[in-house]
């Protein structure tokens, strides 16, 4: 297949009957978690514009990324990459990278402070992909998945303020002079 003939499209709810079954099939083939139709609808109904598809010239789905963006615990505006899958025979051709970059770019345009995701500790290809795109491992989540596997949480800090707030650093504070106790 000619990779130049791929189409990368943003999901739209008007195409649910065309795409939803293919999205579910592709993800269920690749990811260890069994997702119900309600999980897909949760993401697609609220953040369908953060879902991108890779289609061949016959509009067969080769890859998909599903994401969301919302304030995280009253703090930063956090993007979240929930699911990424590419057909096995089309891996290593840059499809996943292109899909993730499209999601990241869209989240940045919508004022994301940071973008997070989880991936199984055994999924070295995914970990390399995310690290190439600038994501940092932030923590290990033991027995995170239903199959008992652990995960790494990755975070991409889009704005410096998101990163420095994690460190407890306030750029408005005077860092040169130590604060004296009230009795001094």
Overall mean pLDDT: 87
- Number of distinct beta strands: 7
**Numbering strands along the chain, what is their spatial order in the largest sheet?**
1-2-3-4-5-7-6
| Helical coverage, percent range | 25-40%
The coarse overall form would be globular
Radius of gyration: 19 Å
| Unreliable sequence segments | 167-181
Question: Main β-sheet: number of strands, strand sense, barrel status?
Answer: 7 strands, mixed
Query: What is the straight-line distance between the termini?
Result: 75 Å
- Class derived from helix and strand content: alpha+beta
Series of secondary-structure elements, N-terminal to C-terminal: EHHEEEHEHEEH
Strand content: 25-35%
Q: What is the overall number of helices?
A: 5
Descriptive overview:
It is a single chain. By secondary structure, the chain is α+β, with helices and mostly antiparallel strands. It has helices at residues 16-30, 37-47, 95-109, 124-132, 160-167, and strands spanning 7-10, 52-55, 61-71, 77-86, 114-120, 136-141, 151-157. A hairpin with a 5-residue loop joins strand 2 (52-55) and strand 3 (61-71). The model is unreliable at 167-181 (pLDDT under 50).
Write a concise keyword list for the protein shown above.
7 strands; alpha+beta; 184 residues; single chain; 5 helices
Helix and strand topology:
Layout: E1 7-10, H1 16-30, H2 37-47, E2 52-55, E3 61-71, E4 77-86, H3 95-109, E5 114-120, H4 124-132, E6 136-141, E7 151-157, H5 160-167
Parallel strand pairs: 4-5
Antiparallel strand pairs: 1-2, 2-3, 3-4, 5-7, 6-7
């Amino acid at each position: 297949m000619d990779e130049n003939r791929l189409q990368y499209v943003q999901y739209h709810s008007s195409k649910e009957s065309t795409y939803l079954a293919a999205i579910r099939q592709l993800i269920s083939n690749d990811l260890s978690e069994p997702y119900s139709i309600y999980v897909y609808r949760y993401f697609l109904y609220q953040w369908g514009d953060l879902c991108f598809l890779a289609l061949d010239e016959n509009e067969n789905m080769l890859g998909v990324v599903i994401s969301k963006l919302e304030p995280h615990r009253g703090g930063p505006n956090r993007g979240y990459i929930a699911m990424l899958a590419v057909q096995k025979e089309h891996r290593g051709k840059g499809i996943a990278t292109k899909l993730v970059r499209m999601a990241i770019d869209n989240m940045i345009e919508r004022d994301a402070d940071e973008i997070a995701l989880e991936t199984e500790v055994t999924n070295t290809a995914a970990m390399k992909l995310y690290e190439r795109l600038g994501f940092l491992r932030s923590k290990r989540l033991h027995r995170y998945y239903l199959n008992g596997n652990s995960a790494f949480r990755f975070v991409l800090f889009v704005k410096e303020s998101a990163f420095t707030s994690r460190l407890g650093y306030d750029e408005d504070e005077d860092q040169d002079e130590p604060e004296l106790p009230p009795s001094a």
